[in-house]
Amino acid sequence: MTLNATLQAARDMGVPERYAVMRRLAFLQPQIKHLEREIWGARRRMDRSRDPLIKALSESFIRDQEKELRPLKREANALLNHVNGKETVQVPGGITPEMIDQARQYPITSIIEFSKGRYRCCPFHEDRNPSMALYENHVHCFVCNRTWDSISATMALDGVTFREAVLALQS
After folding, report:
1. Distance in angstroms (rounded) separating the CA atoms of residues 99 and 121
2. First to last CA, the chain
3. What region does 93 belong to: left with phi over 0, alpha with psi -120 to 50, or beta?
4. Is 35 helix (H, G, I), strand (E, B) or coil?
5. Number of neighbouring beta carbons within 10 Å of residue 72
6. Do the Cβ atoms of 148 and 85 come closer than 8 Å?
7. What is the DSSP letter of 108?
8. How far apart are CA 60 and CA 54, in angstroms?
9. DSSP category for residue 141
10. Contacts of 152 (CB under 8 A, 6+ apart)
11. pLDDT per position as a tens digit, 112-136
12. Quick check: pTM over 0.90?
């Protein structure tokens, strides 16, 4: 949920904005703390272990947890800045980190169609056999050896800039 969504929900429910923001922060903080503890524990296990499999699994787990943690921290910072009367940080080009997160959450299957399961021919080169795999919300081509999320796929397919892609993916 973004700051704007929280503020809109507060207006819709008829509660003060500050109350809604503080409740959202109270909801986010235990989640953030839990993910930080999980990351700390995985790093500790990884440092103590000599087994390469445990190290590889721990690194993968840490990456996944950090990927989940980043948007929560960004949202918490935006909420705190709003409560404290500070402006949200603008990314060059007039787009906010919230807009970037929202664009990244745009379903990639709406940009690149997958009719049969998780694999398809790559649209970025001539391909006879399916070489592009669909993962959570990104795709990877094993021939190109490249990965695209919603923003980078829009940029590549439509020939637009990062800013234009982010603005185009606002739902």
Report:
1. 30
2. 13
3. left
4. helix
5. 15
6. no
7. G
8. 10
9. E
10. 165
11. 988 878 999 999 898 888 999 998 8
12. no
3-state SS assignment for residue 120: strand
Distance from CA of residue 68 to its chain's centroid?
7
Task: Give the model confidence (pLDDT) of 48-68 as tens digits.
Answer: 889 989 888 988 898 889 888
Query: 148 phi and psi, to 5 degrees?
Result: -125, 140
Nearest to 1 by CA among 17, 30, 25: 25
Output the CA–CA distances (angstroms, integers) from residue 101 to 52, 55, 70, 95, 140, in the order listed. Answer: 33, 29, 10, 11, 20
Sheet holding 132-134, edge to edge: 119-120, 132-134, 139-141, 146-148
> Taking a C-beta distance cutoff of 8 angstroms, is the pair 87, 158 a contact?
no
Sequence letter at residue 23: R
Q: Which amino acid is at 158?
A: D
Question: Measuring CA to CA, how many Å separate 171 from each of 2, 29, 86, 97, 166?
Answer: 13, 27, 26, 15, 10
Residue type, position 32, single letter: I
Residue 52 CA to residue 57 CA, distance in Å, equals 9
